[in-house]
């Protein structure tokens, strides 16, 4: 397996930029939801047509559950976004982002024949922005960019130095 130091500067820059751009998008979406007192996921969940649509629709019909899901969604987006932007607990942020995007995709997939009451940006067939961002998060999961540029470099410094010391041959 390649180490972070095995990548060229261009590769490292591209991977860190990808992580940070996705982080910015998550953070922006979370803040936009947090400052809009009228935002709710009710219509998005009620429009569900695919897997788990019954669960999503029952959440949208229950004010208590809907409030809880809206809270988790908003603050989850903010936490994931900050984690990706700052490179802090990057692996956890990436995995949480993948789970969240999977839920978005499953709730409202861009399949032919599915119509939704919410306006869409275009006519997609299977692949939409959600799926593309999900794939980009898988790329960031494969590369430890938080340990290259980010707070993970500081957080896990002691662990890395311990591993390096253990792999060094003993002095005679």
Word description of this protein:
The structure is a single chain. The chain has 172 residues and is mostly helical. The chain has helices at 9-35, 42-46, 53-61, 63-86, 90-107, 129-142, 151-155, 157-167. Helix 1 (9-35) runs antiparallel to helix 4, helix 1 packs across helix 6 (129-142) and helix 4 (63-86) packs across helix 5 (90-107). The radius of gyration is 20 Å and the shape is globular. The two termini are 30 Å apart. The mean pLDDT is 88.
List its traits:
single chain, 172 residues, mainly alpha, 8 helices
- The proportion of residues forming helix, as a percent range, comes to 55-70%
Rounded mean pLDDT score: 88
* Series of secondary-structure elements, N-terminal to C-terminal: HHHHHHHH
Number of helix segments?
8
Q: Which outline best applies? A: globular
Described by strand count, sense and barrel closure, the largest sheet is:
none
Total strand segments: 0
- Decide which structural class fits the backbone: mainly alpha
Radius of gyration: 20 Å
Strand content: under 5%
Uncertain residue ranges: none
End-to-end gap:
30 Å
């Amino acid at each position: 397996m390649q180490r972070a130091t095995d990548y060229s500067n261009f590769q490292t820059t591209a991977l860190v930029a990808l992580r940070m751009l996705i982080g910015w998008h998550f953070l922006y979406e979370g803040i936009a939801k947090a400052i809009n007192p009228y935002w709710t996921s009710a219509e998005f969940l009620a429009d569900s047509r695919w897997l788990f649509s019954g669960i999503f629709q029952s959440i949208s019909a229950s004010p208590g559950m809907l409030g809880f899901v809206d809270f988790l969604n908003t603050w989850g987006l903010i936490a994931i976004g900050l984690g990706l932007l700052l490179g802090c607990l990057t692996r956890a942020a990436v995995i949480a982002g993948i789970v969240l995007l999977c839920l978005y995709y499953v709730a409202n997939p861009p399949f032919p024949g599915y119509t939704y009451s919410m306006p869409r940006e275009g006519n997609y067939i299977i692949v939409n922005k959600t799926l593309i961002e999900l794939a980009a998060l898988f790329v960031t999961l494969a590369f430890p960019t938080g340990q290259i540029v980010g707070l993970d470099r500081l957080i896990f410094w002691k662990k890395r130095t311990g591993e390096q010391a253990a792999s060094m041959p003993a002095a005679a």
